[in-house]
Amino acid sequence: MRVAMIGTGYVGLVSGACFADFGHVVTCIDKDASKIERLKKGEIPIFEPGLEGLVERNVREGRLFFATEGAEAVKTADAVFIAVGTPSRRGDGHADLTYVYAAAEEIAGQIDGFTVVVTKSTVPVGTGDEIEAILKRVRPDGDFAVVSNPEFLREGAAINDFKRPDRVVIGTDDERAQRVMAELYRPLNLNESPLLFTGRRTSELIKYAANAFLAMKITFINEMADLCETLGADVQQVARGIGLDNRIGSKFLHAGPGYGGSCFPKDTLALVRTASDAGSPIRLVETTVQVNAARKKAMAGKVADAMAGQVKGKRIGILGLTFKPNTDDMRDAPSLDIVPALIEMGAQVQAFDPEGHEARQMLPGVDFKDGPYEVADGADALVIITEWDQFRALDLDRVKRLMRTPLVVDLRNIYRPAEIESRGFQYRGIGRG
User: H or E element: which one contains 277?
Assistant: First the structure.
């Protein structure tokens, strides 16, 4: 089948490359000429394990193309995916649908014959209705169906998530569109991945509901971590004890400095606003948003407490800046709250992240280093914010020799307290009373 993918951001590029790897012919379209030029040269603008090789192979084999103009690709496409950004709108937290509606306007003038227009971007309930209205207004003679097909890709594991999904949600009541979507995802039949067909509005809500639930799960275990510290319990054992219950499950029960990234912060906020406007507030999600924001801001205080309040003039080493490992995404990362707060307290901050290159513009005043041992050199405290694999097995003896004061504040609990304390360190984790 022939696919046009509007937008070459994280979702569009990964989805387009994976569809091409399924055997479909895919054109990824973006108005950013410099990005398209880079992609044509094989330069991937985002960090995602395995993506560079996937793109290179499918370009070489003639299934994946990049363009700044989509007229020809849209005209010949069986399905046109809208995969543009929907950032939080300034002022009210609603999803900004400017790019989505602009894409719909453009697509409307280019479709030829029956075309399935698919919303891959995360959009509020009812957006598909508005896209359909735009298409009908611009092309009253058009033969099309508007479908919701939300993505459930984890940054750092997106290719596996696309090819081996828990489920594929497809929102449409149009039988022709259902057949097109089933054919697009037919290669997943080998993995027995379920295709869940729903109404369009239901599909749109499923995406928000899923992210909100996971955000609540993270926030729940973070609050349990605080309680563990007060009561003298161990949050990791609590998480394991409840996670072994199949009704709860172990995923997203890892205590830390709060969630961030491109999805959970904006999607929970957008869902709260949608529910409020509908007159059906969702108090659990509202509280989740508030608690998570407060938690990220409180983490600098946790570091200060571990240093007995003696932060001014001290050198603090930071390991990890991105919101999670295996991504270069800095959006709403806890580090963006923690690091400036430490600097405001008077600390000298030196930091390293394997892929967080954007941090250099986002965190002024930080001395960026080339590796974890350079960060440890002369530090009065070493703070682990992001649990990159290369931080999990540091040469602790070397770290101790380099540090001025052997204090580790582990905001991801990647070390065992007894092990690291036996090496002569002071250790402070999360939820380990």
Answer: helix 264-277
C-alpha–C-alpha distance, residues 414 and 412, integer Å: 6
In one letter, which amino acid is 120?
K
Q: Does domain 199-433 have CATH number 3.90.1150.10?
A: no
Query: Considering the entire predicted model, what is its pTM?
Result: 0.93
Nearest to 316 by CA among 347, 285, 356: 347
CA angle 192, 198, 200 (to 5 degrees): 130
What are the catalytic residues?
A: 263
- The amino acid that residue 167 corresponds to is R
As a whole number of angstroms, the distance between CA 235 and CA 241 comes to 10
Give the model confidence (pLDDT) of 286-327 as tens digits: 999 999 999 999 999 999 999 999 999 999 999 999 999 999
Torsion angle (degrees, nearest 10) of CA 363, 367, 371, 377: -140
Residues 26-37: pLDDT tens digits? Answer: 999 999 999 999
Minimal CA–CA distance to 414: which of 372, 357, 374?
Answer: 372
The sign of the dihedral angle between the CA atoms of 126, 127, 132, 133 is positive
CATH 3.40.50.720 location in the chain: 2-198, 199-433
Nearest partner of 77 among 137, 132, 28, 33, judged by Cα: 28
Smallest Cα–Cα separation from 6: which of 23, 40, 31?
31
The CB-side HSE value for 375 (13 A sphere, CA atoms) comes to 25
- Residues present in the chain in total: 433
Rounded to whole angstroms, the Cα distance separating 87 from 36 reads 21
For residue 50, give every residue at least 6 positions away whose Cβ sits within 8 Å of its Cβ, in sequence order, or none.
Answer: 159
Distance CA 121, CA 109 (A): 20
CATH classification number, 2-198, choose in 3.40.710.10, 3.40.50.720, 1.10.3110.10, 2.60.40.10: 3.40.50.720
DSSP-derived secondary structure for 386-410: S--GGGTT--HHHHHHH-SS-EEEE
User: In the 8-state DSSP scheme, what is residue 154?
Assistant: P
User: What would the pLDDT profile of 74-94 be if each residue is shown by its tens digit?
Assistant: 999 999 999 999 998 887 788
Phi and psi, residue 28, nearest 5°: -95, 125
Can you spell out the DSSP letters for 345-381?
A: TT-EEEEE-SS-TTHHHHSTT-EE-SSHHHHHTT-SE
CA 239, CA 2: separation in Å to the nearest integer? 46
Report the first-to-last Cα separation within the chain, whole angstroms: 57
